[in-house]
Amino acid sequence: MQQQTLISRALRVGLLSGALLLAAPALAADPSLDSAVTAAQQWASMSDSGATDKMWSASSDIMKKSVDKQGWSEYLSQLRNEVGRHTKREWLQVVRVSDPADLPQGQYVNVIFSTKFLNMPATETVSMVAGKNRWIPMGYVVRKIAPDGQAPM
């Protein structure tokens, strides 16, 4: 029962991340968005190497209030069992969101990657909140790409 609750919390963070995807794309020329892509790549790399505790420690308080360290580790373990090892990751898009519903006021971004995993192609979304001079990760969602090339909703 507790495991379902922890996974449920992790999925809610993922749903919040998905909700941020509905915002308009940001301009790629903004230097602060370059640092968002770099931070997202580093965070996704931590997932690749199984550094779930390090990911959780580096995440925002928003995420930490939604899922505890054990729940985060279980979520990523379950995810990695499904998708397999990462083989290739390419940056696709950055989406900027200001003051989204159900989250504290602030600036948020989703960094979206096209990623090939051993078991499937997918999109990865790393959601982040603006901190002092840096972006802080707050969510991670992987969506399988359907055979027609579209990510399922």
By CATH, the architecture is named Roll
Order of helices and strands: HHHHHEEEE
Task: Give the biggest beta sheet.
Answer: 4 strands, antiparallel
Structural class: alpha+beta
Number of strands: 4
Number of structural units classed as domains: 1
What would the CATH topology be? Nuclear Transport Factor 2, Chain: A
**Could you give the distance between the termini?**
27 Å
| Radius of gyration from the alpha-carbon trace, in angstroms | 14 Å
Quaternary state, please?
A: single chain
Proportion of helical residues:
40-55%
Number of helices: 5
- Contiguous low-pLDDT stretches (5 residues minimum) are 5-13, 18-31
**Approximate shape:** globular
What share of the residues does DSSP label as strand, in percent?
25-35%
Overall pLDDT level: 82
Per CATH, the class reads Alpha Beta
Strand order of the largest sheet: 1-2-3-4
Q: Please, could you describe this protein's structure?
A:
This protein is an alpha+beta fold and 153 residues long. The chain has helices spanning 2-20, 31-48, 52-58, 61-66, 69-83, and strands spanning 86-98, 107-117, 121-131, 134-144. The protein has a single domain (2-144), classed as Nuclear Transport Factor 2, Chain: A (Roll). It contains 5 helices and 4 strands. Strand 3 and strand 4 form a beta hairpin. 30% of the residues are buried.
Question: What does this entry show, briefly?
Answer:
This protein is an alpha+beta fold. The chain is 42% helix and 30% strand. It has a single domain (2-144), classed as Nuclear Transport Factor 2, Chain: A (Roll).
